User: Fold these one by one.
Assistant:
Number 1:
Amino acid sequence: MPSHTPDTDELLLRAEQGDAQARQTVLVRHRDRLKLMVSLHLDRRLAARIDPSDVVQEALLQAAQNLDQYLHERPLPFYPWLRQLAWKSLIDLHRRHLHAKRRSVRREEPLAPHLSDQSAMQLAERVLIHQSSPSQRAIRSELRSRIRAALDRLGERDREVLVLRNLEQLSTKETAAVLGIREGSVKTRHLRALERLRALLEPESEGEN
């Protein structure tokens, strides 16, 4: 008989009851998801000298230190909370290494790491993978610069929901928690963003036939 594998909620309950093993397990369970998120958003100028695993490890250390407070308050579902910690670490990295000379330390608005060219291509491929043959041919023939141009023409809100749902593969519930909106709004925003990106890419492919 296969052994029972506790889900995240069960592990959190055990951790709240003082189970040290459950605390450790729940903290490392989402390591790969966090590493994917960091890899997607890490600026290519930093990729050669910064390992995404190091960013994730820093976030998990912060999570371990703040887990008791999280368990008491539960401000977000668990993975979005972990992601928030990793995102802050990523923001700090970009600020220190890429923006120190260009931004005032007094400015409070967060930096938003942009997708690498590879991540942009992955997003376009996932968005158009089930489309008609012209779209599939476009994916094979489009230059990176044209994919990037199409993504850049989208609003920040559109890019954000596409990345969360299609690249990071967050659930609707997790995406809603990250964005601070309702699940129904996530579905609507995601559908509209898909339609806008496809509309930007497909007319270009039609001219190549």
Number 2:
Amino acid sequence: MKYQGIDLPPQYAGNNWSRNFLNWVEQQAEKDALLKETLMLLLEQIKLLRQLLLKTERKLREMRKTKYAQKADLACSVAGIGPTTAMLFLLETGDINRFKGFDSLNDFVGLCPDTDSSGDTHRDRGITTRRHKQLRSALIEAAWQAIKTDPALMDSYQTLLKRMKGTQAIIRIARKLLRRLRAVLLSGRPYQKGVIA
């Protein structure tokens, strides 16, 4: 839109692609014959992607109520973990017992530190680049939500902030969430808020 010199009205300046915004884009497309075809194809693509997302979410809700009901409820008992993240975790990890321990699960998700060693030099490179992209992102987002609702996690986060950046601290909180998820799925008991893990 900016490339074509079309300025967005203030009410559509945010990142929310509402139905009203899509209608407005369609109206703008009608004004320019050269731009119309391109914009209409892009709008059609957006609408198709939204329909696919709705179908996927319906299927996830259906699966959550049947085959994965008990495990999904356990996962959702962990602060910050919602139904979508719980289902993503359960579907991607499969049987939690297939991981020998927490470190194995942590390696799979990609929340473990990465180092670069050569002879006498040793450099820390942050978290590993080898990861399960969607699962790691979902757990980091869940960690941001968890510190808002769980006092123990907020306390841990505040303590970590004294010695590192917020983005580094939230990785450690995400690791705590992963540890909690593993624990509730192995024990079969819901998580108790406020417990330091």
Number 3:
Amino acid sequence: MYWQEHKPTEEYVVPDTIVDAVFGITCRSLPVDHAYALSQAIQTALPWFAVEADAGLHTIHGADSGNGWMRPEDPRALLHLSHRTKLMLRLPKHRLADAEALLGKTLDVGGHELRMDKLTPRPLSRITTLFTRHLVIAAGDDETAFLKHALELFGALGIRPAKMLCGKMTTVALPARVLQTRSLMVADLTVEEAVLLQQRGLGPERKLGCGLFIPHKDINEVRRKSE
């Protein structure tokens, strides 16, 4: 008799080659559209950040609503930040020590002071529903064209998402142009795909917070609320 038990599939271990560097900050307020000013301030303090291929900046977002407060739609309006607000950089692990140069510094973000405090590395998530607030639009503002373009970008990474849901359009202002972006949620990825997407991002301008994915609640819940 020949008898062989099936070995359980080994649990995928998330590699730590890319991590989020989470900084405590002290900052009273920032403009809603602060991506360019914050990116420039980071690059001034960390000159290598601009040329590090795997580095990206998570822009700062307060809650969309809470205690009667709604997030302003005007990009020039101010976000009033709490002491719990964090700033995150997505970085190769070998750059964490270099990023410590930010500690104790006060950055000038478009005329707003932002002090950088404690740094805590955070591994990428195993959650398979991910979300980006800003994916640069390359094919107009039509949702169908946008999703088709997103599929092409996913395909270049070898990712085949089963579910995607695009959200509202926003802009990211630069000195000489304005980027048109949409939010995008993608679900039912494998854990390996989810980690790869967080590592690599999607589309251009990740130093401005575009194309960086973070964990999100299930896409079916979001669809029910929007219907």
Number 4:
Amino acid sequence: MKVDIGKRLDSWDDLFDFDILEKIRGRVAMLEEFVEPIMAAKYALGIDPDDWSEAAVNRIIDLLKRQKNYIRGYLGISQIVPVIAAGELWVSQIWSGDAATARDEFIKNAGEQHAEEFEYVLPKPMTHRWTDLMVIPRDAKDVEAAYHFIDFLLRPENSARVVKASYYPTPLKRQLLEKYLDPEILQDPTVFPPPEAGLIHLNYTDEMLKAVEKISYAVKG
């Protein structure tokens, strides 16, 4: 089934455009990690990313409550990827590397002739970076071995293998990886976002975490 939305969806505003949402009701999902829906609403409303005032929080709550009636739910990646691949979910927040996995699964199901129907978008006007971390527990039995393992992973040739396997970039600069990666991966925006993507870093302050908890409770109950 095809629905004419009338435009390319490329901004956070589109996720909260209720004329659009009415046309694709139930075919939209937001991530269950609730910082993500909250920041989506914040970007759409034009609120400063560091503004967690009562007025800002109330506006975010109101917008997410209104959107909630149109979405499939706040879903985890293990739920999102299969329904995108099956063509049942049309628009969704998603982690970058998982978007590449969903793309491959969608093409596998739908066929190469439908490859252009899948598009990964870094929404306007901005979005934020996210990171996974490696840590050495304070009671680790062999700290030296842990350092050797991290050193191993951060060598360019091994770091490139991680990128190929996961579609996620590593801490190494792209220039250090270029000789080990295919041009297709180097040009893939799900792996290496273009400079114009407007990526920012979030400040996880106590004020922010308290606001996220308040908004989550108000929206999800």
